[in-house]
Design a protein that fits this description.
Radius of gyration: 31 Å
Strand content: 25-35%
CATH topology of the largest domain: Immunoglobulin-like
Number of domains: 2
Distance between the termini: 32 Å
Largest sheet: 5 strands, mixed
Shape: elongated
Number of strands: 14
Order of helices and strands: HHHHHHEEEEEEEEEEEEEE
Helix content: 25-40%
Length: 319
Amino acid sequence: RRQRFVDKNGRCNVQHGNLGGESGRYLADLFTTLVDLKWRWNLLVFLLTYTVAWLVMASMWWGIAYLRGDLHRAHDGAYSPCVANVYNFPSAFLFFIETEATIGYGHRYITERCPEGIVLFLFQSLLGSVVDAFLIGCMFIKMSQPKKRAETLVFSRAAVVSQRDGKLCLMFRVGNLRNSHMVSAQIRCKLIKSRQTPEGEFLPLDQCELDVGFGTGADQLFLVSPLTICHEIDSRSPFFCLSKRSLRSEQFEIVVILEGIVETTGMTCQARTSYTEDEVLWGHRFLPVMSLEDGFFRVDYSQFHGTFEVPTPPYSVKE
């Protein structure tokens, strides 16, 4: 099977290995590292961090009560312990949870004759705020990531080559399945193809820009209905020498990148796909999907990927 640089669903088939000493950079940016983790590992870190922090802090409260002898004299009405009604580790754990969660049942409380307990209480408050801000912020950012929004941005399964306005063009279709719009949507295309320079240097997976209207502003999309993106094949195009016959022997990949701002959240969203040489149909055109009905336009997505053959010269633009 043809090895793709970018899958149809937008996942990049690139793995980084042999990082050596550079792997420590992941810990330097720990917040981003946690956000990038998969959900199962993210939840595991979330649970383990809170569990360990709770057990450690509860052990410190139990340790203070043990060192002061409060555990043996807790039931003495004339004795003033550090924390009232703390008899063992479970009661120390419950006191910590009541303090950390600001529940405050009133049965357990710190007395004024325990300076070490006051210091530990201040430390617990600061540490709890830091842990909450870090982990809850990480979970919030991960839940609000617009990756799922990209799944409702669809691309045609194949690209087509045919004539438009008397010029040979490479075209593909993009659509938005949601009623909410993509603000400032922009489309970009990259041609991924290995080549050898005149000096003999081999460039694997060399990236070349495909013009889809950058100079005219056609790359700025008003994506309220499916649009057909057009790349005009001219003397400046990498497909200047591409013909119907040479298409069978070529090996390339066209990576399409759609970026925009999600209207409901204001976050930037990116959707990607790719087309290999066997997914480029020469002499085809997309089926129409728009129809006018009573007071509105209807989009028929059942015809979104459909194409039909049209008369197209089999020669390249150079020929």
